[in-house]
Amino acid sequence: MRHIETSLRQGDALIIVDVQNDFCPGGALPIEEGDQVIPLLNQWIDDALLADIPIYVSRDWHPVNHPSFEEQGGPWPSHCLQDTMGARFHPELRVPESAIKITKGVRFDQDQNSVFDQTGLAVQLRKKNIRRVYIGGLAEDVCVLASALDGIQEGFEVLVIPDATRPVTPEGGENARRRMRSAGVRFSGN
C-alpha cells in the first residue's frame, strides 16, 4: 500500500470511530468491507504520532439489554457487549498506548452514536486547543455521521477521511455524505 500524504498539523486531532470486531466481517453487526479501513487508518495513526497529534479512539460498549438492540425495540442486533471479543478493537488496528479511548453507548435510556454525545470530548479538545478534527471509522452512515455533525455543531472544522470509512448500506452512505456536506463537513483529499 502506498503511503498517504496527510496534512496533519498542530491544532488537529485524529478521531477513529468504532473499529471493533462486531462491525467487521464475521462480527455481530458486520459492515461490508469494514476491515478494509484498517490499513489506511493505521497510516493516519502513524502520521499523527509523527506529528504529535492527539489520537482519540471510540468504542461502543453496550450493556446487556441496551435500548439500541432489536429485542429492546431498537434497530440493531445485539453487538459490542461489554467485555466481549466483539467489543474489542479489531486486532489489526494499531491503537497506540497514547491514544485516548472514548467509551460510548453505555446508557440504559438512549443510544450514543456520536463520540461527542455526553462524553466530554468537545471540552477536552478545546482544552488542547484543537480546532480541526479528522474522522474515520465505522459506520459512515451511523456513528461517523453523528460524530461529524456533532463536531460541526461544537464549532470544530471537521474532515472525514472518505476511504477510511464504510456505510451500513450504499444508500445510507450516499445520504450520510450529502448530510455531512450540507452541514459543512469536508472530506480530506477533496
Lateral arrangement of strands in the main beta sheet = 3-2-1-4-5-6
CATH architecture: 3-Layer(aba) Sandwich
Give the full name of the CATH homologous superfamily: Isochorismatase-like
Output the CATH topology. Rossmann fold
In total, how many domains does the architecture comprise?
A: 1
What is the number of strand segments?
A: 6
Structural class: alpha/beta
Shape: globular
What's the tally of helices?
Answer: 4
User: Class in CATH?
Assistant: Alpha Beta
Q: Radius of gyration in whole Å, from Cα?
A: 15 Å
Provide key terms for this protein.
Rossmann fold; single chain; 190 residues; alpha/beta
Explain this structure to me?
There is one protein chain. By secondary structure, this protein is α/β, with parallel strands linked by helices. It has a single domain, classed as Rossmann fold. The chain contains 4 helices and 6 strands; from the N terminus they run βαββαβαβαβ. The chain has helices at 38-50, 121-127, 140-153, 170-183, and strands at 12-17, 55-60, 100-104, 132-138, 157-166, 186-187. A 6-stranded parallel sheet has the order 3-2-1-4-5-6, with helices on both faces. The mean pLDDT is 95.
Strand and helix map with partners:
Blueprint: E1 12-17, H1 38-50, E2 55-60, E3 100-104, H2 121-127, E4 132-138, H3 140-153, E5 157-166, H4 170-183, E6 186-187
Helix pairs in contact: 3-4
Gist?
The chain has 190 residues and is α/β, with parallel strands linked by helices. It has 4 helices and 6 strands, in the order βαββαβαβαβ. The protein has one domain: Isochorismatase-like (Rossmann fold), CATH 3.40.50.
